[in-house]
Specification:
With 743 residues, this protein is an all-beta fold. It has two helices and 46 strands.
């Protein structure tokens, strides 16, 4: 038998002796290029017919490929190999192909197979009655089926959750695409879609053009809607996703998403367009046909190791375009400057930063999408300059920082009386200052951090309500110290830390910038501190105003106590309570903040991670006299074995607009059994005892498929859009667009 194997090896190798390349490094199996290794239980050489037959656990290795079968016949004259019985062909990349019978050329690259199947990456499988192997990278299959699902469980056959059956399938690994002719997509054994021509990326492809999962929905605004994303890979560094939304009640709407990565940064742009009349919450059209569109774009680039620049471009042709066409993920940060909900910001910025200095130059404008917003009343901010520098050495035993800032705001119209188109207030400010801070720790553990901050501002106001302009300047200063005395002790597997905190700060009387409004009242200029809250994040600020226009003066004492419990297994809990005292009433603070009296409201805050997968937080502001809750916020996030979700609660007796608010946001996903589950989320206005929005869904998922059906109810009235009901259907198939996360 050994002699027969040796003869077979010599015979096949000899057929390539004329073409054999010079010796090179061996492959992973130890063979040189064009060397062949074969083993079998029995080898028979027929010189008359020029054939070699191997039987019984045959294995042939050649040029990185391995062929296994129960019988193998090599025809030397024709250069053809025929393998029968549990045939396996293993390529150099690890891909395995199976067949009942295979006929190959003598390099095992091209051939024909019957009873063919293959397992690709991501566990995807192709099977066919017959297959033609054109080359290493191209397979043609007849009467084929494709599925990434498991076909057996516990050694028992299992019908795939989804599959594609076709008369003909071509797997092109060079192009990383699988083509189908007369394809039928089956979900849970039921045919759901017939496509005469269809293709999708090869599971081995990392990025490839093709269809992504569609979104199907029905609502009283647009009627029946079908949105089909298609990914176009433009280059290894850029792609474009086009998502036409076909609606039964209104004209189609095209969404797009373009991404491109450069050597120094990237661009991300979303856009949408339609040509249609406006419509109300019932889908009834009105007005003239016109172009309606939106743009949500951003870019960020690095010039060198210190400089970077970027931009955002956010605009919409009408205020309700995102609501009408259900465009999601709109109001989030795309650049360093943020806006409120239902407002868009376009900005351009450049930043230079190193270990000792920082410089930022920016400009931005805002578009309001709220029913009461008038864009002419929003300022154009250009430029906005912020800079700081620290010397390398300490000064007087502490860290010194030099700060500078400048900003110009221009308004087209005043917001006081929109009917008269009154001129808007324009303002310009330039600021320079020094900030010094040091730290000392005594032998008993008391830490004292003294600080001094001096600042000079120059202001220029124009288009004042009373007419004319105003130029003024001021000098500001504050000195004080932060004092803490942390105490800790071990208790079993935990560490307890108690830390009393005190801050003393003294400032001379500050000159506030004022002007007279159209009613004749004197008001403080406040362009940058209108929406701040008094909580644990601002309790120990020497100047609690986050901006520059308003300044906290006088003598004040901020006191509090922190307590922490840190367990060795990662659990933790933290608690803080404190308040602020001052030498006199400060009417510069809005009454709603609780900072006007000599003794401020109480601040209480806590957060904890009591177990793995659960985190909670709460912050409360209590009235200084009655201890009534003036503002409260609480929330939790959980990701447990049986459920995941979140909740947020907010109560504010007087928000920025002086209106009491109380609302609750919550959401959860709860699996039911191995494959089924429900989702629920919503936002409840407790002050109005009405839901703002509600979502209720059911889903099915397994190793290769997820189906979501979601009912959505919007009860709020946004402008002329009234309440809305919709049902959305989403089908996600593994290897077609995105992965399935099966738990």
């Amino acid at each position: 038998m050994l002699a027969g194997v040796a003869l077979a090896v010599l015979a096949v190798a000899g057929a390539h002796a004329q073409e054999k390349a010079p010796a090179s490094a061996p492959s992973a199996d130890g063979l040189q290029p064009d060397e062949l290794y074969m083993e079998a239980d029995l080898v028979v050489r027929d010189d008359a017919h020029k054939t070699i037959t191997a039987r019984g656990d045959v294995e042939v290795r050649y040029n990185g490929r391995t062929l296994r079968a129960q019988e193998l016949v090599y025809d030397e004259g024709r250069g053809v190999i025929t393998a029968r019985g549990d045939v396996q062909t293993i390529s150099a990349d690890g891909t395995v192909e199976y067949a009942d019978e295979v006929t190959l050329d003598d390099e095992m690259k091209a051939g024909v197979a019957t009873g063919f199947s293959t397992r690709m990456q991501d566990n995807a499988k192709l099977a066919a009655a017959s297959a033609i192997r054109r080359s290493d990278t191209v397979n043609e299959l007849n009467q084929a089926i494709y599925t990434p699902c498991e076909l057996c469980v516990n050694d028992k056959p299992k019908k795939p959750s989804w599959s594609i059956k076709a008369d003909k399938v071509v797997e092109d690994r060079d192009r990383q695409i699988v083509y189908y002719r007369n394809a039928v997509i089956q979900v849970l054994g039921v045919p759901v879609l017939y496509l005469p021509v269809f293709w999708h990326p090869d599971p081995e492809a990392t990025r490839k053009s093709g269809l992504l999962p569609p979104t199907i929905s029905a609502s009283n605004r647009r009627g029946f809607s079908y949105q089909q994303p298609y990914l176009i890979v433009l280059s290894p560094y850029s792609d474009l996703t086009l998502s036409p939304q076909i609606n039964s009640k209104v004209n189609p709407f095209l969404n797009g998403h373009y991404r491109k990565r450069f050597y120094s940064g990237q661009i991300d742009a979303r856009f949408g367009y339609t040509y249609d009349r406006d419509f109300d919450s019932s889908g009834d059209p009105f007005g003239d046909r016109t172009s309606r569109s939106y743009l949500l774009a951003s870019g960020a680039f690095r010039i060198d190791d210190k400089w970077r620049w970027g931009f955002t471009a956010e605009r919409a042709s009408d205020d309700y375009i995102f609501d009408k066409y259900e465009v999601g993920n709109v109001y989030h940060a795309r650049g360093p400057y943020l806006t409120d909900d239902r407002r868009l910001i376009s900005q351009i910025y450049s930043v230079r930063q190193d270990e000792r200095s920082y410089l930022s130059i920016a400009a931005f404008s805002i578009q309001g999408l709220r029913p009461t917003d008038v864009d002419r009343t929003f300022p154009l901010v250009a430029p906005l300059i912020e800079a700081r520098w620290e010397p390398q050495r300490n000064v007087l035993g502490g860290r010194l920082r030099v700060n500078a800032s400048a900003v110009a705001l221009t308004r087209d119209q005043s917001s006081e009386d929109l009917t008269q188109r009154l001129p808007g207030l324009d303002s310009r400010r330039a600021t320079g200052g020094l900030d010094w801070r040091s730290s000392y720790t005594s032998q008993i553990g008391v830490r004292v951090d003294p600080f001094v901050n001096v600042r000079a501002d120059a202001y220029s106001l124009s288009d004042l309500p009373t007419g004319g302009s105003k130029t003024t300047s001021r000098a500001l200063a504050v000195a004080g110290a932060d004092i803490t005395y942390p105490l800790y002790r071990r208790f079993g597997d935990s560490t307890v830390v108690l830390e009393p905190v005190m801050q003393v700060a003294v400032s001379p009387s500050a000159k506030q910038i004022t002007y007279v409004d159209y009613s004749g009242a004197t008001v403080y200029l406040d362009e940058d501190s209108r929406s701040f809250e008094f909580d644990e994040t601002t309790l120990f600020r020497a100047d609690k105003f986050p901006g520059f226009d308003l300044y906290e003066d006088g003598a004040r004492l901020n006191v509090g106590a922190r307590a922490s419990v840190l367990w060795d297994d990662g659990r933790r809990a933290e608690f803080l309570v404190g308040r602020s005292f001052r030498d006199a009433v400060n009417s510069v603070f809005p009454a709603r903040t609780g900072l006007q009296p000599r003794a401020s409201d109480w601040i209480v805050a806590a957060e904890a991670q009591p177990m793995k997968g659960l985190s909670v937080f709460s912050r409360v502001r209590l009235d200084s006299d009655s201890l009534d809750v003036e503002r409260a916020e609480a929330g939790a996030n959980f990701a447990l074995k049986r459920a995941s979700g979140y909740f947020r609660y907010l109560r504010d007796d007087s928000n920025v607009n002086g209106v009491k608010t109380e609302n609750l946001d919550l959401g959860t996903e709860v699996p039911i059994g191995q494959h089924w589950g429900v989702t629920a989320s919503g936002s409840l206005d407790l002050e109005q005892s009405a839901w703002i929005v509600r979502n209720l869904g059911v889903f099915y998922h397994d190793d290769c498929l997820r189906v979501d059906i979601i009912y959505r109810r919007e009860d709020t009235v946004v402008g002329r859009l009234g309440p809305s009901d919709s049902i959305a259907f989403r089908l996600t198939l593994a290897t077609l667009g995105e992965a399935i996360n099966a738990n």
